[in-house]
Amino acid sequence: MSSETQAVSTDANVLAGCVTRKELAKQLDRTERTVGRLVKQGMPEVRLGPLGRIILYRVEAVREWLLSFEKRRGVPTHRKTRKAAAR
Question: Is residue 41 part of a domain?
Fold first, then answer.
């Protein structure tokens, strides 16, 4: 196996767990617009290409990000309470 062939197969493996915005929206049963809003809230995305116009989402990273919002002992982990925000 040449080093060029090996590099191509390695690159393909790196992108194996990635999906487009449309595919992610379908998996989450949400709209593409909602996926965009989640990105603005900090959901991880992978930008490729010289201008970063190719946008992919690593399904496992998105899953972990969404799970981080689970409430623990009744307290949200990412959102500030109204009292804390008012201080």
Answer: yes
Q: Specify if 81 maps to a domain.
A: no
Both structure tokens of 13: 């493996």
What is the number of domains present in the chain? 1
pLDDT tens, position by position, 14-38: 788 999 999 999 999 999 999 999 9
Torsion of CA 20, 21, 26, 29, to 10 degrees: 150
**Full-model pTM:** 0.66
The CATH number that applies at residue 63 is 1.10.10.10
Both tokens assigned to 1? 């196996």
Strand order in the sheet with 46-48: 18-19, 54-58, 46-48
Tell me which residue has tokens 């090996």.
6
Residue 84 counted as domain residue = no
Q: In angstroms, what CA-CA distances link 52 with 9, 48, 60, 69?
A: 22, 5, 21, 27
